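Action item from last week, closing it out:
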Amino acid sequence: MALIRLGGAKNLNFLAIAANPLSQMFKAKIRSLYFADRFLNVCSGEHLSMLGKELGFPEKLPKSEYQYLLMQLKKASSTLNSW
């Protein structure tokens, strides 16, 4: 499946992930299940955008990029990294 190849790639192509015709929710679930160490398990596009905005990430990024950035933030936090 192309989405799994894209999610596991060394250099993530967030625009290619966004272009996949599956629904946002389904794509996010696949990413967070297959790549739990790369993509935070938040699947709602609305929630990803809201969290990104609240944390100061650029607006209108692909949802997969928010999922990835949130995971990087979680990993970098001594409080959150064990959750």
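Closing note: Residues 25 and 59 are 19 Å apart (CA to CA).
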